[in-house]
């Protein structure tokens, strides 16, 4: 078992005050300042003899949005299926979970492990579950078309929402996270977006599931397996989202509970994301 780098980071750095539970979603949640000089000095000592393969890293206190560590946090790069956090935010902000969505016929051309059936109907909440648990790109595309009529128009709304959330290093071209010359973000922006999404109960609940199942109106049942492997093992990771493409490499968003406090870890362009996380745990 690796020594807990997070424990070293947090020793002596806990905020004196406790801001209590977050009751509203506003820009205050997204104020992420420059990394603490203390954190930057402590982490290399804690990692002596160890390395992180991720080239973009951010660690944030989820309760206060206080940054604890950053590595190349403002470098723009693909983020693969971490894109689906924005897709989920837009959908939950505009739709009831009980609304029915028709799976588009074009879905058969989208690479996916869930295999939705074109023409069948799923509730918004079930497609959100498929998207956030099993990272279903079919579900993401179906929700985008349901909301905007086309994925292109949905991406325009994603960019407007990104701007309103202060994600200055982010551009979206699709709802799934597939590589595109016009699709990128930064570790810092992903941390801001994830912090916002995790304060939405409907999203936090789904990002915390180790497995799930959904059922269409026609009766088709689909069993979903969590793509974040550390959520299916005995670790302090209590929520998360994966992302993988050729351009993005291995990406990972994880919520780690340490001494009754939750911390967000974002890894981008990793070669071994779970090894990286075990170094930090």
Q: How is this fold's topology laid out?
A:
Elements: H1 5-10, H2 37-46, E1 56-61, E2 67-71, H3 84-94, E3 100-102, E4 121-123, H4 124-133, H5 137-148, H6 151-164, H7 187-198, H8 201-207, E5 211-215, E6 221-225, E7 237-245, E8 249-258, E9 261-270, H9 273-280
Antiparallel strand pairs: 1-2, 1-9, 3-4, 5-6, 7-8, 8-9
Question: How would you explain this protein's 3D organization?
Answer:
The protein is α+β, with helices and mostly antiparallel strands and 281 residues long. The protein is built from 9 helices and 9 strands. The strands form 3 sheets. The protein has a 5-stranded antiparallel β-sheet, with helices on both faces. A two-stranded antiparallel sheet has the order 3-4. Strands 5-6 form a two-stranded antiparallel ribbon. It is globular. The N and C termini lie close together (9 Å). About 11% of the residues have low confidence.
Main features:
281 residues, two-stranded antiparallel sheet, five-stranded antiparallel β-sheet, alpha+beta
SSE order: HHEEHEEHHHHHEEEEEH
In round numbers, the mean pLDDT is: 86
The unreliable regions are 10-41
Computed over alpha carbons, the radius of gyration is 18 Å
Number of helices: 9
- Choose one word for the global shape: globular
> In which range does the helix fraction lie?
25-40%
The main pleated sheet reads as: 5 strands, antiparallel
Look at the helices and sheets and give the structural class.
Answer: alpha+beta
Strands, count: 9
Distance between the termini: 9 Å
Strand order of the largest sheet: 2-1-9-8-7
Strand content: 15-25%
């Amino acid at each position: 078992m690796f020594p807990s780098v997070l424990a070293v980071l947090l020793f002596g750095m806990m905020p004196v005050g406790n801001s209590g539970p977050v009751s509203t979603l506003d820009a205050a949640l997204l104020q992420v300042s420059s990394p603490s000089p203390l954190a930057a000095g402590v982490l290399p000592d804690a990692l002596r003899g160890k390395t992180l393969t991720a080239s973009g890293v951010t660690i944030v206190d989820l309760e206060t949005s206080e940054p604890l560590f950053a590595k190349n946090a403002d470098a723009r790069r693909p983020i693969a299926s971490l894109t689906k956090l924005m897709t989920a935010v837009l959908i939950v902000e505009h739709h009831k979970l009980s609304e029915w969505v028709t799976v588009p016929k074009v879905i058969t051309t989208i690479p996916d492990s869930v295999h939705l059936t074109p023409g069948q109907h799923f509730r918004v909440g079930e497609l959100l579950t498929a998207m956030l648990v099993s990272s279903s790109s079919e579900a993401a595309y179906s929700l985008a078309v349901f909301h905007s009529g086309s994925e292109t128009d949905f991406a325009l709304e994603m960019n407007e929402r990104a701007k309103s959330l202060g994600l200055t290093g982010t551009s979206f071209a699709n709802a799934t996270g597939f590589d595109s010359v016009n699709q990128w973000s930064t570790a810092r922006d992903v941390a801001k977006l994830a912090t916002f999404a995790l304060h939405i109960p409907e999203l936090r609940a789904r990002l915390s599931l180790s497995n799930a199942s959904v059922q269409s109106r026609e009766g088709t049942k689909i069993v979903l397996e969590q793509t974040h492997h550390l959520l299916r093992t005995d670790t302090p990771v209590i929520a998360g989202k994966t992302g993988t493409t050729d351009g993005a490499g291995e990406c990972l968003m994880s919520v780690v509970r340490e001494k009754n406090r939750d911390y967000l870890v974002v890894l981008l362009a990793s070669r071994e994301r779970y090894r990286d996380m075990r170094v930090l745990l």
